[in-house]
Amino acid sequence: MQDTQPHLTTSETEVVEKRVEWRKLLREIFSTQIDKSAWRIRLVGFCFAMLFMLIGGRLVYLGTKPDPHSLKRAAAEAASAARPEILDRNGEVLAADIHTMSVSIDP
Question: Rounded distance, CA 85 to CA 97, Å?
Answer without folding.
Answer: 7
